[in-house]
Amino acid sequence: MRLLFDQNLSRRLVRMLEDEYPGSSHVVEVGLDTAADLAIWEYAGDHDFVIVSKDSDFRQFAFLRGPPPKAIWLRVGNATTLEVVEVLRGHSGVIAEFGESDEEALLVLPSAL
User: Is the dihedral of CA 11, 12, 17, 22 positive or negative?
Assistant: First the structure.
């Protein structure tokens, strides 16, 4: 599964999680650093990415539009990059199941494992 990290998350996540989520990218790397959320949503759908964000706007797109793409909403507050890595690694099984589901569009991950 390839993740597309939103602007509100560190670019370092791509490198830090490349073993767990190969082929992932950050919106900056694909030229969407100043793009509207809808443009990011459409890009992710067209390029087979799952969006990862702390922004609740993608939650609304998931409910209104459904998959693809899918979105992971991190409810982690002001977590450090290492804490975000821990959350994504700690929930890798749940994330894999979410990626395989044809019906689910949104996965909400809390900071606590």
Answer: positive
Query: Who's near 105: CB < 8 A, 6+ residues apart?
Result: 62, 63, 65, 66, 67, 70, 71
Question: Which phi and psi angles does 49 have, rounded to 5°?
Answer: -110, 155
Tell me 91's DSSP state: T
Q: Give the number of C-alpha atoms closer than 13 A to the C-alpha of residue 93, restricted to the C-beta side.
A: 2
Q: How many whole angstroms separate alpha carbon 54 and alpha carbon 14?
A: 16
What's the chain's average pLDDT? 95
- Indicate the pairing of strand 106-110 with strand 70-75: parallel
Where are any strands of DSSP class E within 37-101? 50-53, 70-75
Given a cut of 70, the residues of the chain with pLDDT beneath it are 112-113
